[in-house]
Design goal:
By secondary structure, this protein is an alpha/beta fold. The protein has ten helices and six strands, in the order αααβββαβαβααβααα.
Length: 323
């Protein structure tokens, strides 16, 4: 295969860039990067290509702030040289799986017994009726921002993540989700791809918060620009678009003049709260779009060679933004 010989000629820097473009971890020794690139590009054809009418359900994990997006593409034919640029957003929603106020005397909603029922009901009543061919689940971390302690809330979300994988795998093996593909998506890999062009501008302790704001702004731009490749396909999605943009436009403080006083703590807190309410929706949509971009980059690498992909100038741009 042409790409295997081409990999041997790449520098470590180019291998890192190629890994980022294909959705692979980009840190490590050169031999590690080479091995994971060759393994990924050597997968069987049925694991390298999307079905003719893919339906991608992208899930941003959370108990009180879970968000999901259902993305579809126009029918892909054997003559299609590239994935369609217009992505259809069929569903876009945010869920709270746990009641906001749990009384001390009530049954523990986070017990394994109750969490397993929550996971099963979520999948059978919310997710499988959407008929997804692929389900992308955001991979959870064990620690938050490098903290030494593992937070109890983190353990709960990790438990839900594991239960979703277990239930979906069981349903697939029982032919209740026939042919379904389950993918665990590392948010660090998504962030690396998203921020690769702005890496120098977004460093240090504020990096995560800046990337969050950039993601929200990117989705808002897609929604506001009707000429972009995002098609909203239902009244519910259009309603969510309106709510998203209302919160996005409302999160900004009025432009200050030099004579204006500094914004108060309360004004800053309210702006941050509005941002928090929509970042999960942005994350679920971006995760799905970026994953589709990785699939297109892999197709380009297999069809034209890795050098052609590296020279294309588009490998770091999202599918939805390509001409």
């Amino acid at each position: 295969m042409k790409y295997l010989a081409q990999l041997d000629s790449l520098t470590g820097v180019k291998m890192k860039g190629l890994c980022t473009a294909l959705g692979l971890p980009s840190s490590g020794r050169k031999d590690f990067l080479h091995n994971q690139l060759s393994s990924t590009l050597s997968l069987p054809p049925d694991q390298q290509t999307l079905p003719p009418s893919p339906r991608i359900l992208s899930i941003d994990m959370g108990l009180r702030n879970m968000a999901f997006s259902l993305l579809t593409l126009p029918k892909i034919t054997t003559r299609s040289k590239t994935l369609p640029r217009r992505i259809h957003l069929q569903a876009w929603n945010r869920l709270s799986l746990i009641p906001p106020n749990v009384l001390p005397s009530s049954e523990d909603p986070y017990s394994p017994q109750n969490m397993s029922q929550t996971a099963y009901k979520l999948i059978t009543s919310q997710f499988l009726p959407l008929r997804p061919t692929h389900i992308l689940i955001e991979r959870q971390r064990f620690r938050t921002r490098g903290q030494a302690a593992v937070q109890e809330w983190t353990v709960r979300v990790n438990m839900l993540e594991s239960m979703l994988h277990a239930v979906l795998t069981s349903l697939r093996l029982e032919d209740r989700w026939p042919g379904g593909t389950l993918v665990s998506v590392n948010p660090k890999t998504v962030a690396s791809f998203y921020a690769c062009e702005d890496e120098k501008a977004v460093k240090g302790a504020k990096r995560a918060q800046e990337i969050k704001k950039m993601k929200i702004a990117t989705v808002a731009t897609w929604l506001k620009d009707g000429t972009k490749g995002l098609v909203l396909d239902s009244g519910e999605v259009l309603d969510m678009e309106r709510r998203f943009l209302d919160k996005f436009d409302g999160k900004r403080l009025p432009r200050r003049k030099k004579s204006d006083p500094e914004p108060t703590v309360e004004e800053l807190r309210m702006a941050e709260e509005r941002l928090e309410k929509i970042d999960d929706l942005a994350d679920s949509l971006l995760q799905g779009v970026i994953w589709l971009t990785w699939q297109e980059n892999r197709r380009m690498a297999l069809a034209d060679g890795v050098h052609k992909l590296l020279e294309s100038g588009v490998m770091n741009s999202m599918l939805i933004d390509r001409e």
